[in-house]
From TrEMBL:
Gene3D superfamilies: CRAL-TRIO lipid binding domain. Residues 143-245 form the CRAL-TRIO domain. GO terms for cellular component: membrane. GO terms for molecular function: phosphatidylinositol bisphosphate binding. Signal peptide: none annotated. The lineage of its organism: Eukaryota, Metazoa, Ecdysozoa, Arthropoda, Hexapoda. This is CRAL-TRIO domain-containing protein. InterPro entries: CRAL-TRIO_dom (IPR001251), CRAL-TRIO_dom_sf (IPR036865), CRAL/TRIO_N_dom_sf (IPR036273). Pfam families: CRAL_TRIO.
């Protein structure tokens, strides 16, 4: 079934701290930001929730969200499911929000290699697919209290690691921390690979300290249950959710049936020629002078 967005009025009723008045004030602010694209009320509500109802933080996050995506088309462009590269990425890796929340109200984003051949793995497109399915779920179901990424690393080989683009990782981790409209909580890894130290060495320099501390390695799956109850995991892990194969088919269907949603998202780009406050944004992304296109990675 194609996307039916959650009614934003339902979000206001469900979350007493999410105020329509604050979202309307964000909309008035947005109308003065001539460089920003058309933004829906639902999108603004999702940003405000992700920023714990701080309108000032939401303003920065909104601008970061659209700026990062506009300046990184090599990652966030070509967003249509009909794109052959997106189709190949969908077939390669499972990204799926599990249907049940944790007792704390956290959403679990489950990640698993489905095609273990490194030749079929394209890191930039996988980032794009992760973002696409997460935002689709947000617009369908509304925000969760927190988001936990659970990564089963079985099948992730050193050949996959060698295809990780460092500049893309830096951009993605910056986006995850500064622009994505979710309350990121942690990343949980299990079925740890022997070269995990190299994976962490690549990630941690681009993370704020509290985010780096949220990375949790599980040598046994049982320790994962402290964060994610077994019963909400896929069937293969002793949970009550669907099998990995069924979840993968659902993931594929959700992506393929919502091309119009992704087409609209792809149209939401920043026009830098209309930005009024160039000093504070274009010159300060990533904390370096210049834009993403000028980014140098050591």
């Amino acid at each position: 079934m194609p996307l039916t967005e959650i009614d934003v009025e339902h979000l206001y009723e469900k979350d007493i701290d999410l105020k329509k008045e604050d979202v309307c004030n964000l909309l008035k602010w947005k109308e003065k930001q001539l460089h920003l694209p058309v933004v829906t009320e639902l999108q603004l509500a999702l940003f405000l929730h992700s920023c714990h109802y701080s309108t000032e933080k939401a303003k920065r996050t909104i601008d970061m969200y659209f700026t990062i995506k506009t300046m990184s088309p090599q990652i966030f462009g070509n967003r249509l499911p009909s794109n052959p590269m997106v189709q190949a990425a969908i077939n390669c890796v499972l990204f799926i929000p599990l249907p049940d929340l944790t007792p704390e109200g956290d959403l679990i984003l489950f990640v698993k290699m489905m095609d273990t051949d490194p030749e079929n793995y394209h890191y930039g497109t996988q980032i794009n697919c992760f973002d696409m399915i997460t935002l689709l779920h947000l617009h369908q179901h509304g925000p969760a209290k927190g988001v936990i990424i659970v990564f089963d690393m079985k099948g992730f080989a050193f050949g996959h690691f060698l295809k990780v683009n460092v500049a893309y990782m830096k951009t993605f981790l910056y986006y995850l921390q500064e622009g994505m409209p979710i309350r990121f909580k942690s990343i949980q890894f299990f079925n740890i690979v022997p070269f995990m130290d190299k994976v962490l060495a690549l990630m941690k320099p681009f993370m704020e300290r509290e985010v780096a501390e949220s990375l949790v390695m599980h040598t046994k799956i049982e320790s994962l249950y402290k964060y994610v109850p077994q019963k909400i995991l896929p069937e293969e892990y002793g949970g009550s959710s669907d099998t990995l194969e069924i979840l993968h088919e659902k993931y594929r269907a959700q992506m393929n049936e919502n091309e119009d949603f992704f087409k609209f998202q792809e149209s939401q780009i920043v026009d830098e020629s209309k930005r009024l406050d160039k000093e504070n944004y274009v010159g300060d992304i990533f904390g370096v002078n210049g834009t993403f296109k000028k980014l140098q990675v050591d």
